[in-house]
Amino acid sequence: MLTEPIQIALVDDHRLFRSGIASLIGSFNRYNILFEAAHGKELVDKITSGLVPDIVLLDINMPVMDGISTAQWLKKSHPSIRTIILSMFEDAEKVLAMVKLGVKGYLLKDAEPHEFEAALLKVADGELYYPDFVTHHLLNNFNNDKASAVKLNPREIEFLRLTGTELTYKEIADTMCISVRTVDSYRDQLFEKLQIKSRVGLVLYSIKNKLIDL
Known about the structure:
Layout: E1 6-11, H1 15-26, E2 31-37, H2 40-48, E3 55-59, H3 67-77, E4 82-87, H4 92-100, E5 105-108, H5 113-124, H6 132-143, H7 154-163, H8 169-176, H9 180-194, H10 199-208
Parallel strand pairs: 1-2, 1-3, 3-4, 4-5
Helix pairs in contact: 2-3, 8-9
């Protein structure tokens, strides 16, 4: 029977979100927040200095060192540390990339408190916690492994179409009724997914794939 709390590292660049999750975890039994970090580099520094958690709750989109790079480092340098991904999106490509890196759990940031507790419980006990949307992506990937076309969800397509207008990113956010930060996440997500580095590239992709009519 465990007598010591399970040590948690919380890695996310949103301070208010970290604070809320830390308070939530503090209300559960068995767990203790060992430290918080704003990005992967800060996590690496803290672990290297001797603060080694049992579980890392890891955001994907962060400055300095993002979640994918951090998960790669954890897999190579500390494979015994279990990782649960925190994400704003049900992004198939990133879900699959993280699963291949051996993450033990995946949670949407708007998940219910009981889902956070269930994920921690399963992962702490050596099990996996993958919600239905992750299982769905894994099944689709298995069934369509030979397909090479990039799959875009409706909101990504809407964003791509709006990049072909004269609207600023802030105006695009207003049009889509989302925050500027979420628009930035869509942009960065598409940059990575489509291997594009600029808004011009996004527009050219949209034209080529007939998402925008000239």
